[in-house]
Amino acid sequence: MRDRVQVIARATFLEAVRDRVLFVVLLFAVGVVLFSRVLGWLSIDDELKMVEDFSLSGMSILGLLLAMLVGAFALAKEIERRTLYSLLSRDLKRAEFVVGKYFGLVAAFWAALFAAAVVLALWLALWGGRPGESYVAAVAGLLCESLLVTAVALFLGALAAPPIAAVGTCCFVLAAHSTEALRELTSNGKSPNFAAVWRVLYHFIPNLEDVNFINTTGGQVPVQWSHLGMGAAAMALWSAVFVGGAVLLFRRREV
Amino acid sequence: MLKLKVGLALCAAAAIALRGPLGEANAMRRVPGARWMPDQRLAKLFSLGHRSTCADAIWLNAIGNLSRDFGDQTRKRRWLDTVFDTITRLEPTFSNVYSWGATYLGMLSNDKDRAIDLLKKGVAANPNDVKLQIELAMAYFEYKQDRAATLAVLEKVVKHPKCDAITMGFYDSLLVDERADYAALAQMAPWLDSPNADAKEEAELYLERTKKRIAFRAWNEFKDTRGRDARSKDELRDKSLMAPEVFEPVLGSFEIDGDKLRFPRLEELERKRALRVATSWARQYRIEHGHLPDVEELMRNPWTAGRNLAPPAGQHYVIDDAGVRLEND
After folding, report:
1. A43 → closest Cβ in B49, B60, B92
2. How many CA atoms, within 13 angstroms, populate the side-chain half-sphere of residue A174?
3. What is the percent of chain B where pLDDT is above 90?
4. Mean pLDDT, chain B, as a whole number?
């Protein structure tokens, strides 16, 4: 089983790498990284902070765009091109296919994020910056975020038409980044009923802020690696839930 | 095909033609005071996880508007409050916002209490930021003349390994004579070596102002203890009145003119500074109005800060591209 998943993952990775969408999106991210220097010049004293913040945000958007444009379309593409039929007619289970797809997509997205991170690190070094542990934590957080967002894109891709899945993935990311802010907003005691509902809902919505370390790169706050570790574990668990859901949905799907 | 090409060319031409009227319409939107900021309580929600980047974007937008005349001080004050509150909510570790914000509030907006409050907030959010703590100490010292509060902040700062030599020297000098005079002298001394002529002159001005304060204290204390005015500088050199390290640097800055003290160098520096501030204000005025102000306009505006800046007898103000200067009648 492991071999079959590996084969699918490798094929998905190679296919994604050959896909022009990945390069266009990566090019966009690298463009944001290079352009962020201009914003740095507009600032006072915080030139490299601006470069780092805007670039890391650009990389976060890169992860989201890849999940939306590649991840959400992955399963539908296989059905549309009829490659799925030849695969399933052999000794390949649907679950193996979905899991292999997931790992292949994650590997491709991680490669793109890693490439953007290397470009940013070199860019920062060129201007006299020294990417430290907070930078490593921010990039690691983005990789963890990509883990979950890809799983959600795949899940929604198995559930609905690809454009709807892409929009749904975007909505998920926006909601999952807002859980913390909503909790803070509702804790002021002004609407106790909504606060009570939200306190319960809060535990059932994945919180991408758990691995968002972009906001700590500028300050002198030391990185809380245990926090990142727990966040990564949470992302892995949620990803397992969504990939499992995708498997269940794909098993029921008539192809 | 030709029709399509012609159609496309027409569309492009029409779009370009609209640039002019649209530019004028947009100019109306750029009127001073029309600066919108989102509700700071919702800022985190709107930032969608990109708090730091949103804080940067708001700060970049705010930098350009800090010195802008909003036409209404209350409106500008409200806008400033929202800007600083929003940014520091989004990114409490953005220390330069506290620092620049406090400098703006304290020096340009003359709102010293709010400057101190902003720095206090910054120190609370960034307990390891030595620079912010030093700025808070200096704000207490400069804006409030509160020696005790300054010492309370600096006591912790000087123990920090990142504390600089100037701050340590300043802290030590605050302890001399149990007064702040000597510290004020020590604080400005390093700036006298600045390669920037304006910064150097500004430092000298503050130094001379401090010397004036010390000279008057010595003069008044002499009068209180002896029951008469001092007749010479030597009489003021009484160790029982003031420590020599405080008084000696001050001796050259004043002259005793009967029952009065005169400060010729300070007066000269104050005049130069007034012209510098007026020049800067006139340049800003030209950017905003497209032409230089006239003298009447110059004397009516906030740069004068209520001071009597009538030109000396036999002289008048001249405003041109080089700035504001005094010329003989």
Report:
1. B60
2. 10
3. 0
4. 80
Q: Which residues of B touch A185 (CB under 8 A)?
A: 41-42, 44-45
Does residue B6 fall inside a structural domain? no
Q: What is the tally of structural domains in chain B?
A: 3
Structural domain that includes position B169: 40-177
pLDDT in tens, A84-142: 777 777 777 888 888 999 999 999 999 888 888 998 888 888 888 888 888 899 999 99
Of A53, A185, A214, the CB nearest to B41: A185
* Residue B25 belongs to a domain: no
Residues B162 and B63 in one domain: yes
Look at residue B21 and tell me if it is in a domain. Answer: no
Angle at A187 between CA A184 and CA A192, to 5 degrees: 140
Q: Cβ of B51 under 8 Å from any chain A Cβ?
A: yes
Cβ–Cβ below 8 Å for A44 and B63? yes
**CB contacts, 8 Å: B126 with chain A:** 219-220
- Both B295 and B206 in a single domain? no
Span A27-69, pLDDT tens digits: 887 888 888 888 777 777 778 888 888 888 888 988 888 888 8
Q: Do A120 and A57 meet the contact criterion of CB atoms below 8 Å apart?
A: no
| Final residue before a domain boundary, out of B210, B241, B262 | B262
Average the pLDDT over B80-98 and give the result.
85
Cβ distance B93 to A218 less than 8 Å, yes or no, reads: yes
Whether B60 is in a domain gets the answer yes
Query: Which of B214, B237, B262 is at the close of a domain?
Result: B262
Q: Select from B41, B53, B100 the Cβ nearest to the Cβ of A53.
A: B53
> Does B50 touch chain A if contact means CB atoms closer than 8 Å?
yes
**A97/B contact by beta carbon, under 8 A:** no
Q: Does B91 touch chain A (CB under 8 A)?
A: yes
- What pLDDT score does B114 carry? 86
B58's enclosing H/E stretch is: helix B51-66
pTM score: 0.66
Shortest alpha-carbon distance between residue A66 and chain B (Å): 18
Tell me which residue has tokens 């027409």. B10
Q: Which residues contact B212 (CB under 8 A, 6 or more apart)?
A: B253, B254, B261, B263, B266
Triad B2, B4, B9: Cα angle to 5°: 95
